[in-house]
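Feature request, filed as a ticket because there's no other form

It would be nice if the structure record came with a short human-readable summary line next to the tokens. Right now we just get the raw output. Example of a typical job, pasted below so the devs can see what we mean:
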Amino acid sequence: MTDEIRQRIEAYLGGTLPAEEALLFEQEMKTNPVLLEEVELSRQINHYLKGDMEMGKLPENEYTQKLRAYLRSEEAEKVKASLQKAEQDYNNLKKPTKNKNYLLVAATIALLLISTVGYNFFGKQNPEKLYTQYYTTSDLPSVINRDEDASMFEVGVLAFNKNEYASALSSFENYIETENPIDYSVFLYSGIAHLEMNELENAIADFDRVTLSNSIDSSKGRWFKALAYLKVKETEKAKNVLTEIVKSSSNFNYNKAKELLEEL
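Raw output as currently delivered:
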């Protein structure tokens, strides 16, 4: 969720969104279930921070389980305490001094605090989802059959495309052992196949072989290595690899690596 969307949600919930914009926003929610879910969850966070709602009343699913965990954290409790103090200070003011300016300041503080919760909770992207978002087979080199007989590499790619990873790995290993020289892009396919079979160590070794080669696809090794770490939720290792990628704009998926670092 971008900062712009988060601000629109908080403005809508806080009643500061102009009437016409609020109407358009409501129409957008009707056609965008993801936005509607974010609005409803933000509404529940707001109620909780104001003390109007118990965490137990939140719907039970994986998403809200993570939310509960954050709301129990020391950081969230500090945000809640600060918001409640701001409201208490406002309520303790004498009526003559309760002017619109102070009300505006109090509302701004509340929205800022709530947005802090949103940033800390929503801003942390799920590594596995990011892997799914950024991984695409189109980044793998195409294997063209120039001969009448397909090589074991090509046979392996056919099995790979059918998600028959064990069979694919067998063909790749045969190709590597019998062919000289070899096409180092075979290790990209082999690495992904190992990853799909939950063999991270083998996958990383394959991607490193590509990176250390002099092949045209050498810089792809780091990209797929970063994705591999994302898939197994080793975020810090993924960040380290992505940092290496963004050191040179000539590296494969340089711009995507920058985007992914920002997401993390």
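Something like this underneath would help us a lot:
The longest helix spans residues 100-122.
Residues 52-56 have pLDDT under 50 and may be disordered.
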